[in-house]
Amino acid sequence: MGKLVSKLRLFALLPLAALLTGCNFVVLKPAGDVAEQQRDLIIASTILMLLVIVPVMVLTVIFAWRYRHTNKDAPYDPDWSHSTQLELVIWAAPLMIIICLGALTWMGTHLLDPYRPLDRIAPGEPVAKDVRPLNVEVVALDWKWLFIYPEQKIALVNEFAAPVDRPISFRITSSSVMNSFYVPALAGMIYAMPGMETKLHAVINKAGAYQGFSANYSGAGFSGMHFTFRGLSDADFDAWIAQARASSDNLGRQEYLQLERPSENVPVRRYGTVDPQLFAAIVNRCVEPGKMCAHEMMAIDAKGGLGLAGIDLMRLHYDKTVRRGAVFGPTPSYLVSICTIEEANAALDQSAVLNLPINGSPILGAGLPRPSFTPLPSPRSTWLLDGRRPQRS
Questions:
Q1: What is the DSSP string of 271-337?
Q2: What are the residues facing 270 on neighbouring strands?
Q3: 122-283 has which CATH code?
Q4: How far apart are CA 57 and CA 61, in angstroms?
């Protein structure tokens, strides 16, 4: 009876095995040269590790069977302690495998560096010198993907395409939280982070429609954060670009701020025109009009900063709580002028300039002469060279 039940359980699992035959193992059968090299690296590494794992598993079963308690013919040697031959096998085999794995990993890490421009589009087919890569700017939003084509001056949501056998150069960032850009058929995943720009180089070698998605959990709408990547012929790609250009929608900064708001399961959207400086503004956290960009802030900090005048005025709000729908959050604050309060007031009232305290100490420099200073007469007061104001008569 027990054997019959076991056989019935085995037959019950057969439909599950049939379902697995319909799986698309795209990671092991990609359509891009970079993804194929990554697949080969995975397979080679797995085989090398199995050279140790399989013999250990087999020997475990053999030893357990041969030296079982009921086997009286197996030799029994309780005083055995060392075998030089066995030590050589135990240490030499893993050492050789580790050396091979290290060499493969080192070469793969450098040759498949996502920041490294491609030098081939397929095995034995180097990139032609006159071929320019297709530039695509990628922005991870909540919860959708924005693709900007700066040369074609178009933008799309949750869809992008590229010609077959043409290198693609990605510039990737995020609007709020960290995400992961991943098209398994094209290349490995790479992170998209707010305030930073990552790069990826890839190529598609077979025409078709492929799935892309976020491989890093980023909130409530994460499950719907996927898109379609299309590998097209040159003629089909030109037609696809013309279709996007035919859209009357424009993606400017105000339109982007609306698009940036969290939304789930967003359909494909096309923009016939796009602000050429939009991606740079997204990376530098200054899409809002009048907001100081991160690269400007870093330039000021590199020169010594603004001291107390810059405290709490120039923060980078990585979590856009107000724009992301939160009720409470920091009120946006912007730097109006780079000066003291007295200097700012004096700029509005030129008659008060002479009342500002002046530091008459000499300016020191490498070999520079001491600057001269001639006080200006004033009907209200006069100034001495050392900055002191004389008493009124």
A1: ESEE-TTHHHHHHTT--STTPPPHHHHHHHHHTT--GGGGTTTS---SS-TTTTT-SS-PPP-----
A2: 156
A3: 2.60.40.420
A4: 7
| Angle separating helix axes 84-111 and 33-66, nearest 10 degrees | 160
Task: Let me know if 69 is exposed, middle or buried by CB neighbors in 10 A (0-12, 13-18, 19+).
Answer: exposed
Structure token digits, residue 143: 């919860």
pLDDT at 352: 47
In tens, the pLDDT along 20-60 reads 554 567 788 888 899 999 999 989 989 988 988 998 899 99
Instruction: For residue 101, give the amino acid letter.
Output: L
For the residues of 220-252, what is the DSSP string, one character each?
Answer: TTGGG-EEEEEEE-HHHHHHHHHHHHT---EE-
Q: Which two tokens stand for residue 32?
A: 């891009």
Ranges in the chain, pLDDT < 50: 22, 309, 314, 327, 352-354, 356, 379-387, 390, 392-393
Distance from C-alpha of 132 to C-alpha of 166, rounded to nearest angstrom: 8
- The pLDDT of residue 171: 95
Tens digits of residue pLDDT in 130-155:
899 999 999 999 999 999 999 999 99
pLDDT at residue 365 in the model: 53
Which tokens hold the place of 153? Answer: 């001056």
Structure confidence at residue 353 (pLDDT): 47
Q: Measure the CA–CA gap between 204 and 33, rounded to whole angstroms.
A: 7
Residues in Cβ contact with 264 at an 8 Å cutoff, skipping those fewer than 6 apart: 143, 220, 221, 224
- Please say whether the beta carbons of 176 and 195 come within 8 A: no
* CA of residue 225 relative to chain centroid, distance: 16
Distance from C-alpha of 292 to C-alpha of 336, rounded to nearest angstrom: 10
Q: What is the DSSP string of 31-50?
A: SSHHHHHHHHHHHHHHHHHH
* Residue among 284, 295, 261 nearest 194 (CA): 284
For residue 360, give the 3-state DSSP assignment. Answer: coil
Rg, Å, the chain Cα set: 33
Domain ranges of the chain: 23-64+87-112, 122-283
- Dig out the tokens for 207 from the structure: 């025409």
